[in-house]
Amino acid sequence: MSKKEKKQNKKMKIFIIVISIIIIIAAAILLAMYLVNKNNKIPTEANNNVIEEIIEDKKINIFSGTERPIAVMIDNHKGAWPQAGLTKAYAIYEIIVEGGETRLMAVFKGQDVSKIGPVRSSRHYFLDYAFENDAIYVHYGWSPKAESDISSLHVNNINGITESESSFWRIKQKSSPHNVLTSTDKIKEIAENKKYKLTSTQKSVLNYVTEEVELENGTTANTVSIPYSTGHTTKYIYNAETKTYTRYAKGTKQTEFETGNTITTKNIIITFVKNTKLNDGENKDRQNLSNIGTFKGYYITNGKAIPITCIKEDRKSQTVYKDEQGNEIKVNDGNTFFNICPIDANVTFE
User: Fold this and answer.
1) Which end of the chain is more exposed for a tag (fewer CB within 10 A), N or C?
2) What homologous superfamily is domain 70-193 in, according to CATH?
3) Which conformational region is residue 110 in: left (phi greater than 0), alpha (psi within -120 to 50 degrees), or beta?
4) CA 264 to CA 224: how far, in whole Å?
5) Distance in angstroms (rounded) separating the CA atoms of residues 94 and 116
């Protein structure tokens, strides 16, 4: 055999050895992938679908998407009951107003609500909570202080009094001024015409989690009573089967206007804040709220209550709610009633 043939032979052997090694390595990799996949450690296409379903299940349901929230002032006078749309709101703020009454601000996100109301006039301190939700603020009239603040703070607001009767209409089942309704479609249409932004990337005020929050060391809170004044007490009664609270006002169970469904909530947050009489020149006993700073409160869910600290640094910042250890509280994925009540309110739990 010539030197040339020997050289070619050697090259061929090397080539065969390299190819063999590659085949062995590839076979080993394929075998490993098979064995690992068999034990569900590497996701196949089917496993990918399962993982996607799990991820979908872990998403927060109450606060999702990029549609900008809408905050609507809701009448809470007895003549306004039952109200419309409250069951679709992810957050509802209840605060004292003149005459010992309370007013609500319902906040909606990504919801199609055909009837909301009765819509009532603005009070200036509600703006602070519209701001922290980055919401379009909707009302029907305003107090002098609210009108001034809406202008000076450049609030994206919609005043129903200045809009058409097809956008804010009166119903015959209730008497004026407790009978004005609107809808999310009409609000968004007006907002678009006013060139307000309709999307928002602002995070939620609350730290929602998908795992069920159980306040193991909390105080039993099957019944929660919040006296706003001598004439108005808000009460919540826990239903262990649905793990939600039924809402009562002045001893009356709260229901939805169209469906008659009971108004319930998954979470309750109480903040104790000082309110004083506001001198706005109209002598109507309107209120002022000292709600910027650090305040005591409670977080209530699943039949238990814990003390919390509520921190709001300025009118536009989001309130931060912390437990006694200084950690931001984890909140159940579900709707929340924020009861911002007088600092001396004798709140009780049973």
Assistant:
1) N
2) YerB-like (3.50.90.10)
3) left
4) 13
5) 16
- 227 contacts: CB under 8 Å, gap ≥ 6: 233, 341, 345, 346, 347
| Averaged pLDDT in 10-residue chunks for the chain of 350 residues | 53 59 59 49 42 54 97 98 98 98 98 98 98 98 98 98 98 97 98 98 97 96 98 98 98 97 98 97 96 98 98 98 98 98 98
* Tokens at 273, concatenated: 């804040």
Tokens at 232, concatenated: 């108005």
Q: How far apart are CA 4 and CA 289, in angstroms?
A: 100
231: Cβ contacts below 8 Å, ≥ 6 apart = 99, 100, 101, 250
- Per DSSP, what are the bridge partners of residue 327? none
pTM above 0.90, yes or no: no
* Cα 116 from chain centroid (whole Å): 17
70-193 and 208-349: same fold? yes
Query: For strand 304-312 and strand 320-322, is the pairing parallel, antiparallel, or unpaired?
Result: antiparallel
Q: Using CA of residue 76, residue 79, residue 83, residue 84, what is the dihedral sign?
A: negative
Look-up of token digits 């929660």: 224
Residue type, 198: L
Specify whether domain 208-349 bears CATH 3.40.190.10: no
In angstroms, the Cα distances linking 293 to 227, 270, 271, 324 are 23, 15, 12, 17
